[in-house]
Structures are given as structure tokens and as C-alpha cells.
Write a structure and sequence with these properties.
five-stranded parallel beta sheet; alpha/beta
Length: 492
């Protein structure tokens, strides 16, 4: 009997669960991730060379994760490809069945002569996750200003502290585990600032309280643990206050915080300056949509943003292509695991009437309700652009400032998306609009234009979507010109 071949892109909680379920359904699996170890940001592990004696000290639910990790990676039908980048998805010709072909590069991202491979799966599961969204403010480009996710990754994955005197700011419950990781790694966290006021946060989390009990048991334990850590280290947690400026000569040396109104406009006279040597900021998450859009997946608006649209089995609009985790909604690790298990089982050819799917779908649906609650409790206020000054950098790669963007978009001849992009160069740098794209899109809409990005519409996505690009990851010309490695995809 020919077994179905399922390719899973991303080895975080969702991708690892998808791989395990697909193996359980009898498929053979190729599990791909850019990292050296599985786990994603949530279960980020120290490199194997560290030989950590007690890795569980950095993790939640380490026992269950470790058992699943070992079960998947040691399974005879699983091929684990770490440090592997998917640089393109090639859609089948119109009318042909099946998911896209998967083009990958194996090897360290900064290595040379990485071999190319091409995979032709029977089913594709996209579990590529999300990254921090950071709103620009004066000084955010200074060395020493980190995204909260990057700071946590350094603390958990490398045992590197970003500074001795650190402020954590932005919005969302993710600020708490970041602060906890920094404290555990040895930093002194001075304060944690939640931009939304206590009333907004409470109103969002208390919406439909009869649903909260089913969702909150595990999350409440985590929240209590993080809060206890802040109390133990005497770290103040302040709501309704944000970092609106970073200052320093050559690197961040101090931050200016201010009280905010519910719309995030600054309350005049509330500014306060704090000396720091590092700042960690996050204003929510942006799903990584490059690969879903390359596959042709439709998007929809939910939870305050654009996410991949899926059905009850996590199928996207494309044949035999499934989406799980943060690209379908920011709902936390438990929901991501449930989505992954549903998608992996169906993609692997499992019985769609299997009893376990009912429990998984209930957990998944609770997670979706949690995502709605999260979006209500921690919205991004519309008046944040009032923090900006004319010389505030909007696109860090190309050093495009706010004045340049406003000038380009105010000129009728240059306000067309492609013309504005070429004039300002916003989004043309190495990150290819991954960081500045959502910000440029929002500011452009407010200034009477639309974001500068690639051509052509995708179902459910505006034509100017900054995530639309044929090459999803950087690839050297020499690697692109070299023929694919003839090695079979099931060789590890």
C-alpha cells in the first residue's frame, strides 16, 4: 500500500501536533523548520551543544512536549529537516489536483552552497506561525530596542540577556512570559507597561463570562505563575501607559513613557523618563502569510486582522493544503495543538469520523473564542500615530521617515501603491515589508492611499498585500541557479 506523504512546514506546537497526528493516521511525514530544534517560540530549546541538564526549567508543559517531540522525531516514517527554509511554493497547473510543490534550502541561513530540494507531497500543512508587530515611535530603531519575541528567543534559546536594566512594553499577555524569561536569564526588569487601560482589558476578558471558564483553566495557571514571578522580583505592571520615545547616543539609554487615553492618544503632562539599557516592545502579532499566499490560500478578516480561512477540518481554499496555528488566529498554544492534530489526521488519510476529533474540535473552538477575547482586551488604539514625529523612521531597512511617507502619499501623482513604494522605498529592504508592511498599510489608508506592495489580487486579500511575493525567503543567485539535489526527500 502506498502511504500518503504529508509535508508539515513549521515545528512549533501546531506543526508538531500535525506531524504526530499524520503519523498516527498511517502517513509518512517530512517535518520542516528553520530552527535547529523543534518547539517554535513557545517551546524554544537551547542548542544541543549546550547539553542542558534541566531544560524543563525554561518550559511550560515540558513533559508532554518532550514526549511528543521524541515520539515524532524517532518515528520510522518521519523525516526531520531542521535548519531548512521553504523559499517557494509552486502551485499545480489549473485543473491539476494536489497541493503545491515545496522548494526548500537545507543548511544554516548564513551558510553557503545550501542544497536545494523539491518535495511533491500528497498533502501540505502550513504551521508557519507569527512574529511580533511593533508600532514605530521616535527612537525605536536604536540599538538596544528589541521586539519582545527576539528578546525572549535570546533568553530561552541562547541564555543571552539583552540588558541589565530592561523595560517591557506594548500590549497583550505575551508581555508577561517575556518578562519572566528575562528575569530567569538574569536581567533586571524595571517595569512592564500594558498600553491599554485596566477598564479596556477587564471589559475584553469579561466579555461572555460564561465562556471564559472553559477556556481559562490552563491559561489562568500560566498567568498566575508569571504574575507571581513579577511580584517576587518586585516588578511593577502598569496599565494604560506606553513607551512613546527611546533616546540615546548610539544605543538606547532612556525611554519616555506616558499615560494613554483609551484611543492611545497621549495624556499631556504624564510623560516620565526612565534610564534603561534595553527595551523590549510588542504590540501584538502579525501572521506570517507569505507561504499561505504563495499557495493561493484565501484570507478573511477576523480577530482584528487578516488570517487564513479554513473549514472545520483546517482545510484552506486550496486542494490538500491545510493551515494551523497563528496563521488562522492568535489563540495560544493549546488551540494551535488542537488545530494541528485535526489537520494532521485528516491530511494523513485518517477517518474523518474518529471520536477523538470531536474533543480536538471543541478545544480548537474554545481557542477561537479565546482569540476573539484577546483581540477585544488588547486592541491597538487608533491614535497611536500621534506618537510620530516627521523624522520618525517608519521603514528601518531603508530609513524611510514619516515625513517622506506623508509627502509621497499626499502627491496625487505618487500616491499609487507602486509609485509610492518606489519613491519612499518603504518595504524594499531586506525584510521585504515583514516589519513595516502593516504599519505602512495603516498609515497609507489614513492618508488616503493604500499600502505599497506587489501586484495582483488573491482571493480574500487586497491587491496591495505586503505578504505577496513569489520568493518567500532570501535565496542566493547561485543557489537559485543550481539544480535541485537528487537526494530522495525521505533521506535525513
Amino acid at each position: 500500500m502506498t502511504r500518503r506523504h504529508v509535508v508539515v512546514i513549521g515545528a512549533g506546537p501546531a506543526g508538531l501536533a500535525a506531524a504526530g497526528a499524520a503519523l498516527g493516521a498511517g502517513a509518512r511525514v517530512t517535518l520542516i523548520d528553520t530552527a535547529e530544534q523543534p518547539g517554535g517560540q513557545y517551546h524554544r530549546m537551547l542548542p544541543a551543544a549546550y547539553a542542558a541538564a534541566h531544560p524543563e526549567r525554561l518550559q511550560h508543559s515540558w513533559g508532554a512536549f518532550d514526549r511528543q517531540r521524541r515520539r515524532v522525531l524517532t518515528h520510522p516514517r518521519c523525516t526531520w529537516w531542521p535548519e531548512t527554509a521553504v523559499w517557494a511554493l509552486e502551485r499545480p497547473a489549473p485543473g491539476e489536483p494536489g497541493p503545491p510543490r515545496v522548494h526548500v534550502l537545507r543548511g544554516e541561513a548564513d551558510g553557503s552552497d545550501r542544497p536545494r530540494h523539491v518535495l511533491d507531497p500528497d498533502a501540505l500543512v502550513l504551521a508557519v506561525g507569527a512574529h511580533d508587530r511593533v508600532l514605530p515611535f521616535p527612537g525605536w530603531e536604536l540599538p538596544g530596542v528589541f521586539t519582545a519575541g527576539a528578546a525572549q528567543a535570546l533568553a530561552k534559546g541562547e541564555r543571552v540577556v539583552v540588558g541589565d536594566r530592561v523595560v517591557v512594553a506594548g500590549t497583550g499577555p505575551f508581555l508577561l512570559p517575556v518578562a519572566a524569561s528575562l528575569l530567569e536569564a538574569g536581567s533586571r526588569v524595571l517595569e512592564v507597561f500594558e498600553a491599554n487601560g485596566a477598564a479596556t482589558v477587564a471589559r475584553g476578558w469579561s466579555h461572555r463570562p460564561w465562556d471564559l471558564a472553559a477556556q481559562a483553566a490552563g491559561k489562568a495557571r500560566e498567568l498566575f505563575g508569571y504574575s507571581a514571578g513579577l511580584i517576587r522580583h518586585r516588578v511593577p505592571y502598569r496599565t494604560g501607559r506606553a513607551v512613546i520615545e527611546a533616546r540615546g547616543e548610539g544605543r538606547v539609554e532612556e525611554v519616555v513613557t506616558a499615560r494613554l487615553r483609551p484611543d492611545w492618544s497621549v495624556l499631556a503632562g504624564s510623560e516620565r523618563t526612565t534610564a534603561v539599557d534595553a527595551l523590549c516592545v510588542s504590540h501584538g502579532f502579525s501572521p506570517q502569510l507569505e507561504l499561505p499566499l504563495a499557495a493561493g490560500c484565501a484570507l478573511h478578516t477576523s480577530y482584528g486582522g487578516e488570517f487564513v480561512a479554513v473549514d472545520d477540518d483546517q482545510r484552506t481554499s486550496r486542494p490538500e493544503t491545510y493551515a494551523v496555528g497563528e496563521i488562522t488566529g492568535i489563540a495560544g498554544a493549546p488551540a494551535a495543538r488542537a488545530e494541528g492534530a485535526v489537520a494532521g489526521w485528516i491530511a494523513g488519510g485518517g477517518d474523518p469520523a474518529a471520536p477523538a476529533l470531536g474533543r480536538l474540535r471543541r478545544s480548537r473552538d474554545q481557542g477561537r473564542t479565546f482569540a476573539e477575547r484577546l483581540a477585544r482586551a488588547h486592541p491597538v488604539g487608533a491614535a497611536w500615530s500621534g506618537w510620530l514625529r516627521p523624522d520618525t523612521v517608519i521603514c528601518r531597512c531603508e530609513e524611510t521617515d514619516y515625513a517622506t511617507l506623508r509627502k509621497a502619499l499626499s502627491n496625487p501623482a505618487g500616491a499609487a501603491p507602486r509609485v509610492a513604494k518606489l519613491e519612499t522605498r518603504a518595504g524594499l529592504g531586506p525584510c521585504q515589508a515583514r516589519v513595516c508592511g502593516p504599519t505602512v498599510a495603516e498609515l497609507s489608508a489614513r492618508l488616503g492611499s493604500s499600502p505599497a506592495a506587489g501586484p495582483g489580487p488573491v482571493a480574500g486579500m487586497p491587491a496591495a498585500c505586503p505578504h505577496r511575493r513569489p520568493i518567500a525567503q532570501p535565496i542566493r543567485l547561485g543557489e537559485l541557479a543550481a539544480p535541485p539535489d537528487p537526494t530522495k526527500e525521505n533521506d535525513s
